[in-house]
Design goal:
The structure holds two protein chains of two kinds. Chain A is low in regular secondary structure. Helices cover about 15% and strands about 0% of the residues of chain A. Chain A contains one helix and no strands. The longest helix of chain A has 7 residues. Chain B has a single domain, classed as Ferritin (Up-down Bundle). Classes of the chains: A little secondary structure, B mainly alpha. Chains A and B meet through helix 1 of A and helix 7 and helix 8 of B. The structure holds fe (ii) ion. The site of fe (ii) ion has 7 residues of chain B, from helix 7 and helix 8.
């Protein structure tokens, strides 16, 4: 489970900031919908 | 103001005309979690955002949703293109045809017209950014159900691109939320 740190308070939503690191080349990024590999979460189909 | 580029953000190909799929897909044109709702929501909420970053993110994403609206329009049009009246009736679009012929109109898959009641502009930036993050998740889920409904690899390729953009938008709204919350916190103490 995610452990809150002392910067966080209850009753609030947190999304971690993206830290710039790797970048795909522009054509691959266009095809995937993002140039950031850490933001690429393709749909694998529904499990029903 | 905007500068118009006479091209689509991503190619909008379909393998074949498919009126039934057009009826499903049109919800991303004028449905509750569609691109018109997304675009209008963000472009209206930006005025009361308290920081320049939040204003900028809403402007950028609201603009990109207009580009997605154009992609959806192109896809629906191609799916409907040259459909016979028999195909239109068989897909349950006879009533749509009576009102619009094959023209695009802002409706969901059931033919319910778009309404501003789909969106909120609360004036509270934290509440509004939460709505925006929820909107991105709902749009992502809609693209997943549409991909499930479609057996057209070309159409699905474009739908997967649009779906991935919703994930990126969620991340950006999440970052905007952190910025706004921190800003509002500092305002309370000084
Ligand atoms: Fe989006």
């Amino acid at each position: 489970m995610f452990t809150p740190n002392d910067q966080m308070r209850l009753a609030r939503a947190y999304v971690p900031f993206q830290i710039f690191s790797k970048r795909l080349d522009p054509m691959e990024g266009l095809l995937k919908g993002t140039i950031f590999p850490e933001l690429y979460f393709p749909y694998r189909g529904h499990k029903r | 103001m905007w500068i118009y580029e006479k091209k689509l953000q991503y190619p909008a190909k379909v393998g074949r005309a498919n009126v039934q799929m057009a009826k499903y897909l049109i919800t991303q044109y004028g449905g509750p979690d569609g691109e018109l709702a997304a675009s209008m929501r963000y472009l209206t909420q930006r005025y009361h955002m308290p920081t320049p970053q939040a204003k900028g993110i809403l402007t950028d994403i609201g603009t990109e949703e207009l580009a997605h609206l154009e992609i959806i329009a192109t896809l629906v049009y191609k799916l409907m293109d040259r459909a016979s009246l028999e195909e239109i009736k068989a897909a349950g679009l006879g009533a749509y045809y009576a009102d619009h012929d094959r023209a695009l109109y802002f409706v969901n898959g059931e033919g319910v017209p778009w309404t501003a009641a789909y969106i909120q502009s609360k004036g509270d930036p934290v509440a509004d950014l939460h709505e925006d993050m929820a909107a991105e998740e709902k749009a992502r889920a809609t693209y997943e159900w549409l991909i499930d409904l479609s057996d057209d690899p070309d159409l699905n390729d474009t739908l997967k691109f649009l779906r991935e953009r919703e994930i990126v938008h969620f991340q950006r709204f999440g970052e905007a939320l952190q910025i706004v919350q921190e800003y509002l916190d500092t305002k309370k103490y000084f």
